[in-house]
Design a protein that fits this description.
The protein is of the alpha+beta class. Helices cover 41% and strands 20% of the residues.
Length: 478
């Protein structure tokens, strides 16, 4: 008789032994399959990335189509711009009004609003809300709820370390100082953006973490970059290579972090001698974004690239700066004729930027009065349709903006006299026409009344003849 119990134990032992022997092979096979799948996925992503990269590179800069404009370099960024920070002259443009997600370059606007509404000595306190939103992979410096640091230290963390929880805390603290909270600060960001002339931006947070309703354009970011660069505190912070935050009220340790913008590091291959600061950014949706300020001693420029590809952002930025510094020069407006309707420029050193081969006589100026109607306005200069600068000016009050071509300016006195005479003549002619019409009406009415009287008389005579009651007049005796 078969001993099933003994036989079952032997089968189980053989099965376990076989499993132990085969397990490493099975595990290795599974790992190889997983690795192969991961490799295939990574390879596909890299292929897609390279396709996108080449497609962006194939898009020609819009400024290259401007007549007599220097031909700029191709860039891997989907949108790119180089702008003179003082005049607003756009020297290089590629889809500069196309909307993109900004990622952490948002923090430039955060810094601008903070510097406008707070002091560097103010205290920034970290709430639970400023910490709890962080997710794995988000940039931060390890702040905890209840900690306090100075606004100056906070802005170092915002600009150098791109710390997201610090950006939130700055917005929350400044918002409270403004009489509200975090949302108050976000509204101030949108208000400031609009004030700077940004037309394609909307902001929903202070750090740039992805949000479908949080977007900007290359042109708008150039405007924001130019505005924040005017702040001395920003220039000092953004050019620093590292910073240390001392021990806080809750953490008895220093925090040291480094500058992320590679064009500022002398030992880095991307170092650019004229670089004076900027801000890096990256999310999966925004890809690489970068804002960079440069000063060669003659022109102060800001470059922006959106939806770029890793280190290509630095390559593109360098190429655009080199192009701008090699092909353009400043033209002072001091010795040039004023456009029609302009009394004077607010800045005596006002200038525009033109291609070195361009003629100033081909520049056009559009004069627009400010909405406050106080006699101030803005003069925007264009060359072949490309904006080459704008300046604030004192202007003559007019109902509409005027346009003028330099070299064809009208005499203001003559223009005023002619305008005055034409208005007077219009009034005189109007009065004469009204009087003539009135006289015609009076004459017509008078004639009409006479005709009615004549008809009545004729009817009366006919009636008397028919009735025999015609009375003859008797002759008077003398």
């Amino acid at each position: 008789m078969i001993n099933f119990k003994k036989y079952g134990k032997r089968c189980l032992s053989l099965f376990l032994a076989a499993s132990m022997i085969l397990m490493p092979a099975v595990q290795t096979f599974a790992e190889e399959e997983t690795a192969a799948a991961t490799t295939d996925s990574t390879q596909t992503e890299e292929e897609d990335r390279e396709t996108q990269r080449q497609n962006c590179y194939a898009i020609a800069p819009d400024s290259n189509s401007v007549e007599n404009w220097p031909q700029g370099p191709a860039t891997y960024a989907d949108s790119a711009i180089v702008m003179d920070m003082n005049s607003g002259a756009v020297l290089y443009s590629k889809q500069i009004e196309k909307k993109h997600y900004p990622a952490s370059i948002t923090k430039l606007l955060t810094t601008l609003v903070a510097l406008d509404n707070a002091e560097l000595t103010d205290t920034v306190e970290f709430s639970q809300d400023s910490i709890s939103f962080l997710e794995y992979g988000d940039a931060h410096i390890g702040m905890t709820p209840g900690e306090q640091i100075s606004m100056e230290d906070a802005l170092y963390a915002v600009l150098l370390a791109s710390a997201n929880e610090v950006s939130y805390a700055v917005a929350e603290s400044v918002g409270k100082k403004m009489g509200g909270g975090y949302d108050t600060f976000i509204q101030a960001m949108n208000d400031e953006s609009e004030k700077l002339g940004c037309t394609g931006s909307h902001w929903t947070n202070a750090n740039g973490l992805h949000d479908e309703q949080h977007y900007t354009t290359a042109h708008d970011m150039a405007r924001i970059g130019a505005a924040v660069y005017q702040k001395e505190a920003f220039r000092t912070i953004s050019q620093s290579l590292s910073h240390t935050i001392p021990a806080t009220n809750l953490v008895n340790e220093e925090r040291t972090f480094q500058q992320k913008h590679k064009m500022l590091w002398p030992q880095n291959d991307n170092y650019y001698e004229y670089c004076k600061g900027g801000k890096t950014g990256y999310t999966d949706q925004a890809r690489t974004t970068l804002v960079t300020m440069a000063d060669n001693g003659d022109m102060q420029l800001v470059a922006v690239v959106l939806y770029d590809f890793g280190n290509d952002a630095y390559i593109d930025t360098r190429a655009m700066f080199d192009y701008a510094y090699s092909n353009f020069s400043k033209i002072s407006l001091k010795d040039q004729k004023l456009p029609e309707g302009v009394k004077s420029y607010e800045d005596e050193d006002a200038y525009i930027v033109l291609p070195k081969s361009a003629q100033f006589s081909d520049v056009k100026a559009e004069v627009k009065e400010d909405s406050n109607k106080d006699g101030s306005g803005t003069v925007t200069f264009t060359y072949k349709g490309q904006e080459v600068g704008s300046v604030k000016a004192a202007i003559e009050k007019t109902e509409e903006s005027s346009a003028a071509v330099f070299g064809k300016k009208k005499d203001k006195t003559t223009s005023t006299v002619v305008t005055g005479i034409s208005k007077f003549m219009k009034i005189v002619i109007g009065v004469v026409i009204a009087v003539v019409i009135l006289l015609i009406i009076i004459v017509v009415l008078a004639n009409y009344r006479k005709q009615i009287r004549r008809r009545r008389r004729k009817k009366g005579k006919r009636r008397n003849v028919k009735s025999g009651n015609v009375k003859r007049k008797k002759k008077r005796r003398r």
